[in-house]
Amino acid sequence: MNITVICDVLGEPNNGTSVAAYNLINHLKSQGHNVTVVCCDADKKGESGFRIVPTLNLGPILNAALARNEVVPAKADAAILEDAIKGADVVHLLMPFPLSWKAVKICEKYGVPMTSSFHVQAENFTCHIGLMKSGLATKEVYKYFYKKVYSHCALTHYPTEFIKEDFESNIKKHVPSMVISNGVSESFFEPAPAEAVNRQKAKNKDKFTIVVVGRYSSEKAQQVLIKAIAKSKYKDRIKLIMAGEGPKGKRYRRLAKRNGVDCEMRFIEHEELKEVLNAADLYVHTAYVELESIACLEAIVTGLVPIICNSKRSAARFFAQDDRCLYRKWDSEDLKNKIEYFMDNPDELSACKEKYRAQANVSRLTECMNKMEEMLTEASEMRKKEA
Question: Which terminus of the chain has fewer Cβ atoms in its 10 Å neighbourhood, N or C?
Fold first, then answer.
């Protein structure tokens, strides 16, 4: 098939949405499809299959807010979009933003079927304008997303049942869809080499090692974990690894230093991340807004016990197998107590590791990408039948 993928935001594969986009693009290419990607990433200019549009100028205030969060949105260019869309069998929209809005109109002009992925919770948008905790803002944002994108698509991909129910309950409508996990990379299902794991443990100086993975941003709330460790009677025995990067990095480094928390902060590539997780003792998932959380699933697959923020806006809370692995949102004291429980009861921690490893219901990346490919094929064939 000729498939066009519309990326309002692409960038580096250092966040869940971008990783999901690259996984889909690479899979489709590997299966022999002709894939055209429309994005605003200047570094992709000249690469085969990429069509580059300008960046979107939203004015100094919004531009500054997006820049702080390392988000560069695309500006719709009708000529570039028409060239990328008019010969496609299906067009896949990754985000409900202006590039996709214009793509919808062009697809309808040429009769090209559309599919979409639900990668953006309302809070991922409202956090930039100070309305992240507003239920009314969430509802209105979702209604707008539906009007501009999802109401036009033959099928929409939801990563979890949680976000499907959340979105459709807010807009009071049913969206033709498929629930497909974004998938965990195959490499995480196999243990890291013993030599690499021992090397990581040596770096951690045999301390009790806690890992959290995610962008340093408001909705990830890593500061709660730093504060919890700072309060702990075991503070000097704990090594914290915060794998990621993002706008709150300087603030978190200052917070850790001020409280004497042994904290390593940096972006860690997948292969090394697997080693880091294999060498760790505990995983903490601090995000209170989360569509799926592949990072948490990766930790569980490697055999780590997760302690997860119990937020109604996060799908990750459903991964917890009992209350010992959930802490109250924003409550660093409760999180501290949960960490200390497992440190005080190493046999319980070992038993929980075996329980998570045995009961983890995690989808492999290849399986998920095959399902995404099937969704695109189905949408293309639906339009052919209508014709």
Answer: C
pLDDT for res 126: 61
Count the domains in the chain.
Answer: 2
Q: Do 344 and 267 belong together in one domain?
A: yes
Mean pLDDT, residues 55-59 taken together: 80
Q: What pLDDT sits at residue 69?
A: 67
DSSP string, 114-164: EEEE----HHHHHGGGT-TT-HHHHHHHHHHHHHHTGGG-SEEEES-HHHH
Neighbour tally for 262: CB within 10 Å? 17
Is there a single domain that holds both residue 302 and residue 324?
yes
Kindly list the strands in the beta sheet with 90-93, ordered across the sheet, starting from the edge strand earlier in the chain: 50-52, 34-39, 2-6, 90-93, 114-117, 155-158, 177-179
| Stronger pLDDT, 128 or 292, i.e. the higher one | 292
Span 197-225, pLDDT tens digits: 999 999 998 899 999 999 998 889 999 99
Lowest mean pLDDT among 109-113, 129-133, 158-162: 129-133
d(CA 73, CA 63): 9
Sheet with strand 326-328: strands edge to edge: 263-266, 238-243, 208-213, 282-285, 306-310, 326-328
Please provide the DSSP assignment of 235-288 as one string: GGGEEEEEE---TTHHHHHHHHHHTT--EEEE---HHHHHHHHHH-SEEEE--S
Sign of CA dihedral 348, 322, 181, 47: negative
Q: What is the CATH number of the domain that holds 142?
A: 3.40.50.2000
* 165 and 292 share one domain: no
Query: Could you tell me the residue range of the domain that residue 260 belongs to?
Result: 187-359
Question: Quick one: 272 and 374 in the same domain?
Answer: no
Whole-structure pTM value: 0.91
Return d(Cα 138, Cα 227) in angstroms, integer. 29
* Conformation bin of residue 269: beta by default, left when phi > 0, alpha when psi is -120 to 50: beta
One domain, residues 244 and 292: yes
What is the spatial distance between Cα 132 and Cα 270, in angstroms, rounded to a whole number?
30
Three-state DSSP state, 27: helix
Percentage with pLDDT > 70 across the chain: 93
Question: How far from 378 is each of 90, 222, 294, CA to CA, in Å?
Answer: 10, 40, 26
